[in-house]
Description:
- It is a single chain.
- This protein is of the alpha+beta class.
- The chain has two domains: about 30-65 and about 120-290 and about 335-450, Outer membrane efflux proteins (OEP), CATH 1.20.1600; about 70-115 and about 295-330.
- The protein contains nine helices and eight strands.
- The chain has helices spanning about 1-20, 30-40, 40-60, 120-185, 195-230, 240-250, 265-285, 335-400, 405-440; strands at about 25, 65-75, 80-85, 95-100, 105-120, 235-240, 290-305, 315-325.
- The strands form three sheets. A four-stranded antiparallel β-sheet has the order 2-5-7-8, with no helix packed on it. The protein has a two-stranded parallel sheet with strand order 1-6. It has a two-stranded antiparallel ribbon with strand order 3-4.
- The protein is elongated, with a radius of gyration of 40 Å.
- The model is unreliable at about 445-450 (pLDDT under 50).
Amino acid sequence: MNKIVSFILFCLLLSMANAHAQTYSFGLEQAVAFAQDSSYAALNARRDITIALKKKWETTATGLPQINGSINYNNNLKQPVTLIPAEITGGTPGTYTPVIFGTEQNATAQATLNQLIFDGSYLVGLKAAKTFLDFSKNALEKTQIEVEKSVVNAYVSVLTMDALVAVFDNNKKTLEEAVEELKVVYANGMTEEEQLEQLEITLLEVSGYYKNALRSQQIARDMLKATLGLPLDASLVLTESLEAIILTTENPITDHPQFALEQYIDYKIAENFTNQRRLEWLLERSRALPSISAFVNYSTQAFSNDFTFAESDQSWFQSSMLGLRMELPLFSSGMRGARSVQAQIAYQQAQTDLTQSKQSILMAFKSAQSAYALQQDNFKNAGKSRVLAERIAQKNQIKFNEGLASSFEQHQAQTQLYQAQQAYYQSLLALVNAKTLHDTFFHTSTSNNK
């Protein structure tokens, strides 16, 4: 028995280990598609659509037949007494005789069908439910766009940090070898101690850069996992190369199609909001219209002094009624009018906000275009600066080895190189962010057609 229990525990631990060791491998497009399906924000956005669909049916169902049933059982523990003139039963005139009418127990089963025939607020409610569904679909599209931006930025951040770690690691190893070689030269009395100390200072700086890059690398990976909706202990492999991403960022802005304001998601959401305010105004106006509904009622009753309602010989007395109900809002002391005016003003405010949103979106688009072009120029310049810094560092290293440059000059050249390397990758990340923001203005989605 102990062996069986031990084997089961071993299998459970093994399966848990395999679950924790699960590896995910993504290219950039695969990562975006995965996040749009499995990220926390996307999951909740799709749940909002499900809620909107159910809300739409809930509104629709209020105008469809409604059937309600009830079963009542009464036991008169103390039956009410009624006084009747005593002379009816042969008693003394002018006096009263107490009598009890009815049975001690009775049961009633009833069913009622209600059908709405006309209600202005119901018709407006149907349109409002559809508008809410459209808004939920647009919200999902907006969420997916934001998820795509977050994934691209996080994905490129990981690749950038991986590249920086590799660069700083290589710089660190090169400096460590140079320090060891210079220690031998100094031990033989062929160089000054200042030269060695200056190189050791440079090594300490690069070691700091390397350690900081390692920490940032782990943070970037955790951020990407969280964006993808993965557990932080999952193993993640990125198959996209940094070079391939760089190529996609070099496309000129003129390659993009013309920006269509009406297809931009923020504009569609603003339209949803305006339409919602319009329907709220129509709803307040519809409250002045009459409401008409019909009903059919059927009931059956039984009476007995004992509980015999489940017996086959119990007598049941049936009744039924058909009716029509009309509610007329005649006078509200100006309350309905005040609500209607408030809703109308809110609708006018929404129209003004929509006009303002158009201008804001167009300005944001032009700003994104300008930022994208600027970051393209900055990245090109950063690349050129890195190449120049590498050449300068190489030339100073040769001069230092030949005794033609001081250790301070060599330190300056190397520090300039390290700063140029960091600036290059920082400008790359800024370029990707600018491109992602710019591309959101041309994002297309079929969510509204589903």
